[in-house]
Amino acid sequence: MFALAEKFLPGAGLGGYALSPEGRFVFQRGKGARLWDVEGREYIDYVCGAGALIAGHAHPAVTAAVREQAALGGHMFGVLNETAIRLAERLVCDIPCAEKVLYATTGSEATAYAMRLARASTGREKIIKFEGAYHGNHDYALVSTFPRSVGNYPYGRADTGGQPLGVRESIVVAPYNDLATTTRLAEEQREDLAGIIVEPVQRIVRGEEDFLAGLRALCDRLGCLLLFDEVVTGFRLAYGGAHAALGITPDLASFGKVVGGSGPLAAVVGRAEVIDLADPGRKGETDAVYVNGTLHGNPMAARMTLAVLDILQPRGVLEDLDKLTADFCVEAQKIFDRHSVSARALCVGSMWQFLFTDKVPRSYADILASDMGSARRLDEALLREGHYVLPGVRRFFSIAHGQAEAEETLTALDGICHKLF
Ligand SMILES: Cc1ncc(COP(=O)(O)O)c(C=O)c1O
Predict the structure, then answer these.
(1) Cα of 417 to ligand 1 centre, how many Å?
(2) Are strands 201-202 and 205-206 parallel, antiparallel or unpaired?
(3) Which of 110, 316, 387, 389 has its CA 20 to 30 A from that of 73?
């Protein structure tokens, strides 16, 4: 399989991650919280489709949704389909900031549309993004996402070759959880500022309530839009999105992963007057926003999403998932402390990560200052023992995980700490 992959895929990978040649494997199938590779080796899956698979692999209700819709036709392009309307109604009902819904195919597309809508509705160009924030794979997102050094605000660093300079110049980079600096940068750019895009939880760093509420007030004062990137947090941190729990209403919010049900669907939701700029009947008007895609409103993914939302909505489901994660991190911390390993088991909701640091990180700078080499060695050891984590990347629990998985991983962690540190 590797020989084939090397021949046809760059770096024998799928674009994002490269494992060391001796540690590579190829997945064949998944069920619940587990994955199996082509050699039959079993893994506990903590990557969970980058967070998309909150219901685990091959959940019977999701599989049934796919089967039913596939039998009815997998996609209809161009005009409406019934399932896409049903899902839009559900999203508006369940997401506090959603008055209307604009479909996209991926989270990246959803953040790109949110930025475009902000520019069109304000007639201004610049967007503030936070250092270390990931908003997807498009040029406007790939500025100072994983810079090797921090600071030099408002100037961003390109995270990709091939990025036009003008794109980078339209992005103002600010430090996360630092309202004073963000306010200063926003005021300096006030004539040109279309919006601020922010993740309510940036990687494993919780957005502080004062900071997020301060951004809301700042956007109101400067007449620009607050864009929440809820691609990861949407329906994971809280049903309806992190902003449902925070009580902060962004103008627009981008959803993906859980919204999509792990299929090809994402969405921008928010204020009707802004979303209506994408009304296809307005094409040709100066501020009309072009939004279109072959798979937009894909009924298969819409059905999968409805199935996943039904699973997540009952009271207690997300709370239990958060508790499983929090308990896991408490036990992991005890293991680190017992072995005098200077690591922290961090979690926010059902997202978690081990970082070698002496303080709870508040920003990308804090993460960069942590001992990433030790974290990598630990993560690679977990991976070798069949606990699927991507080294250095935040990970997830799904509702298919239970005590058995948590305990297996904690036992492995204990052994690894004993051997490695
Ligand atoms: C916060 C956030 N925004 C946007 C994206 C992009 O989503 P996608 O990979 O579906 O394009 C991601 C993907 O991981 C993400 O974590």
Answers:
(1) 32
(2) antiparallel
(3) 110
Q: Atom 5 in ligand 1: which residue has the minimum CA distance?
A: 136
Burial letters 222-246, b for 16+ CB under 10 A, else e: bebbbbbbbbbbbbbbbbbbbbbbb
User: Could you give the strand order of the β-sheet that contains 27-31, starting from the edge strand earlier in sequence?
Assistant: 27-31, 34-37, 42-45, 387-388
pLDDT at 22 over 80: no
> Which residue has 């691609």 as its token pair?
231
Q: Which domains does the chain have, with CATH numbers?
A: 2-59+315-420 (3.90.1150.10), 73-312 (3.40.640.10)
With a 6 A CB cut-off, is 224 part of the ligand 1 pocket?
no
370 in ligand 1 pocket by Cβ < 6 Å? no
Q: Which stretch of DSSP H or E encloses residue 414? A: helix 403-420
268-284 residue pLDDT tens? 999 999 999 999 999 88
107 lines ligand 1 (CB under 6 A): yes
Tokens 């008055």 belong to 99
Q: What letter does residue 346 receive in the DSSP assignment?
A: E
Catalytic residue among 103, 113, 134, 239: 134
Other C-beta atoms lying within 10 Å of the C-beta of residue 113: 25
Average pLDDT over residues 208-218: 98
Look up the pTM and report it.
Answer: 0.97
